Amino acid sequence: MRSCEVIIVGGGPAGSSAAWRLKRAGADVLVLDRERFPRLKLCAGWITPEVVRELEMDLDDYPHRLLTFPRLRVHYGRLSVPVPCVQHSIRRFEWDAWLLERAGAPVEQHNVREIVADGAGYVIDGAYRCRYLIGAGGTRCPVYRNLFRELNPRAHELQIVTLEHEIEYDWQDRDCHLWFCEQGLPGYSWYVPKESGWLNVGVGGFAERIKSAGQDIKAHWAQFAAKLDGGLTRGARYDPAGYSYFLRGRVDVVRRDNAFITGDAAGLASRDLGEGIGPAIRSGLRAAAAILEGAAYRLDDVTGMSVSSIARSMLSRAARPLGPHGRRRAGNGGAAHGLRHGNQ
């Protein structure tokens, strides 16, 4: 049986952030993930300036695709408003693997099933033992399932369902677009360009409201795809896939003895735009601080409103000139056809 001080279940942004902080302090850390990195991760891949700062990222040194938007374009009915701000897009296929490698912790591919409390620590599948356990495995995190599900039942009215596709496409419009409540969708759809001719498009909304209205997320996707084909993404071919997660609700218990839940395992996505990367990173860093420093582990303030981040970015942008936005190589967009971002 392998023993270490801290085991982190899940190598996404919450898990890699916790591992990064712990390893810098010299802790004995092991990351377990059921997937081998780089791996498919469905996500628009939108990160905020706060995320960049919290991760101490040097954007000029980031070795993969990163595009900076000087504005968002927000659409509601016939109203279309350009919102000057600074936000960034990455490909999660690349970014998550880079974060995990940067953390410097050993990673093993293992699908965690059973977790048993054992004295002051935990035994995982009879194969791993640790003193501290961090659950960072997303909505279906086995740490949540084994230790926290009865303490923090999911609020199904806050469940979001999505369909999206990331394609290789020679886009011409480099702005990020958001469409709210189109065709009765209780949510929004998005167009998020990525550097060097990649693009993520998708729709998402409240699962219960869609069902109670007699609607279907697939129908909303079909309407959105037709809209895009009429303008922004002519000739693109899609093969969307879906996932679900939970917006921030009541999370009464986030630490149980020496076990912690973070990110989507705790249901921390923002209530307005469903942004989960920032809360995941902040919760991962706080779990590490609780282990290293004995700090209280609280998550009541890790999830703000995404529009607040956009507003802060607007003020920051107004205060200083913006340099060349984005890092797109001209004329290297690739053919206008679908390529799922796990198939490369």
What are the main properties of this structure?
344 residues; alpha/beta; 8-stranded mixed sheet; 9 helices; 29% strand; globular; disordered C terminus
How would a textbook summarize the main sheet?
Answer: 8 strands, mixed
Distance between the termini: 35 Å
SSE ordering:
EHEEHEEHEEEEHEEEEHHEEEHHH
Compute the number of helices.
9
Walkthrough of the structure:
The protein has 344 residues and is of the alpha/beta class. The strands form two sheets. Strands 1, 2, 6, 7, 8, 9, 15 and 16 form an eight-stranded mixed beta sheet that branches. The model is unreliable at 321-344 (pLDDT under 50). Helix 1 packs parallel to helix 3 and helix 1 (13-24) runs parallel beside helix 8 (277-293). The chain has helices at 13-24, 49-54, 92-103, 142-148, 207-212, 217-229, 263-266, 277-293, 306-319, and strands at 2-9, 29-33, 46-47, 66-76, 79-90, 107-109, 115-118, 121-124, 128-135, 159-168, 176-180, 187-194, 198-206, 241-246, 255-256, 259-261. A hairpin with a 2-residue loop joins strand 4 and strand 5. It starts with a strand and ends in a 25-residue tail after the last helix.
What topology emerges from the helices and strands here?
Elements: E1 2-9, H1 13-24, E2 29-33, E3 46-47, H2 49-54, E4 66-76, E5 79-90, H3 92-103, E6 107-109, E7 115-118, E8 121-124, E9 128-135, H4 142-148, E10 159-168, E11 176-180, E12 187-194, E13 198-206, H5 207-212, H6 217-229, E14 241-246, E15 255-256, E16 259-261, H7 263-266, H8 277-293, H9 306-319
Parallel strand pairs: 1-2, 1-9, 2-6, 4-11, 9-16
Antiparallel strand pairs: 3-5, 4-5, 7-8, 8-9, 10-13, 10-14, 11-12, 12-13, 15-16
Helix pairs in contact: 1-3, 1-8
